[in-house]
Specification:
The protein has 300 residues and is α/β, with parallel strands linked by helices. It has 2 domains: 68 residues, no CATH class; 204 residues, Vaccinia Virus protein VP39 (Rossmann fold, 3-Layer(aba) Sandwich), CATH 3.40.50.150. It is built from 8 helices and 15 strands. The strands form 4 sheets. It has a 7-stranded mixed β-sheet. A hairpin with a 2-residue loop joins strand 13 and strand 14.
């Protein structure tokens, strides 16, 4: 007869071995050693990261979901996009420990970046990571549809999965409340930081997009491009809320887990394959319209 405890132990061992293999692939032997040390001591160990395309070193917590975030940003390059011109203003909402902001700051050193993060521990490391960059402004808060105190809740998805919820919303249980945080609207952020126009608004806010896009959003007219990870699986209604409010963007494409929406007046360009398909569709449409016009003329 199988021992349930021995089965659990074996499953945990397999899980840890797979995690170590992933860590070795992403952050090397030093990362694996730091993760093992953290597991044994039940504490997180900071790991210094030096990359040739990043001006200053930065830190990840080992073990943590910082490794997966690092992989998405710097290895899979989820934020690699084509531009017509370099963006001037970028808002990074749900900045976590600042990795996307670091990517943007090194690729576009002339841009101004506002990095917003609600969770205390993440924000502490965010401040450390972006400290050498004068063009990154860290903001401790949460993007929301109202300017008020809200709850930061933990659904136990790791350091990249904290969610926000109104303090008076008792009907939807998202997780355990960790602490209060200041909720802030895009309008308030723009006013507080003297911003009149946003070239790129990146949002990875774990379901708060449902509330942010739920009502009239006049600020959207001042945004040229959205890069958003939708969290329908975590908070039903996110997709409907988002697409209902974003009809004015001409181009849409996906990269990794993010949907890109862009206005053609702005700096972002769709990928080459997307542009080729759009040109082909335009040519087919033009031919169809020409053929239709010829048929009408022949019957008159």
């Amino acid at each position: 007869m199988n021992n349930p405890n021995s089965q659990d132990w074996l499953q945990n061992l397999i899980h840890h071995l797979r995690s170590m293999k992933s860590y070795r692939h992403v952050v090397g032997v030093r990362g694996v050693a730091a993760a093992i040390r953290g597991k044994l001591t039940k504490t997180q160990t900071p790991l210094r990261i030096d990359r040739p395309n990043i001006k200053f070193p930065f830190y990840l917590r080992m073990p943590s979901t910082d490794v997966e975030t690092f992989e998405q940003v710097f290895i899979q390059e989820d934020y690699a996009f084509d531009v017509r011109t370099a963006p001037t203003t970028i808002v990074d909402a749900g900045a976590n420990i600042g990795l996307a902001s670091l990517y943007f700051a090194n690729r576009f050193p002339g841009s101004r970046i506002i990095a917003i993060e609600p969770e205390d521990g993440n924000f502490e490391l965010l401040e450390r990571n972006v400290a050498p960059y004068k063009n990154i402004t860290p903001v401790h808060g949460a993007l929301w549809h109202e300017n008020k105190k809200i709850n930061l809740v933990d659904p136990h998805l790791g350091e990249w999965g904290f969610m926000t919820q109104s303090a008076d919303d008792a009907g939807e249980k998202l997780g355990e409340t960790r602490h209060e945080v200041q909720g802030m609207t895009i309008d308030a952020i723009m006013k507080d930081h003297g911003i009149e126009h946003i070239d790129i608004l990146k949002m990875d806010i774990e379901g708060a997009e449902r509330e942010i896009f739920s009502g009239p959003s006049p600020w959207l007219g001042k945004v040229d491009a959205l890069i958003v990870e939708l969290h329908e699986r975590m908070k039903p209604g996110c997709n409907r809320s988002f697409y209902r409010s974003t009809n004015g963007f001409e181009d849409e494409w996906w990269r990794g887990e993010n949907v890109y929406l862009a206005r053609r007046r702005g700096c972002l360009m769709p990928p080459r394959r997307h542009r080729a398909l759009a040109s082909f569709a335009h040519a087919i449409s033009a031919e169809a319209q020409s053929a239709s016009a010829q048929m009408r003329a022949s019957t008159e």
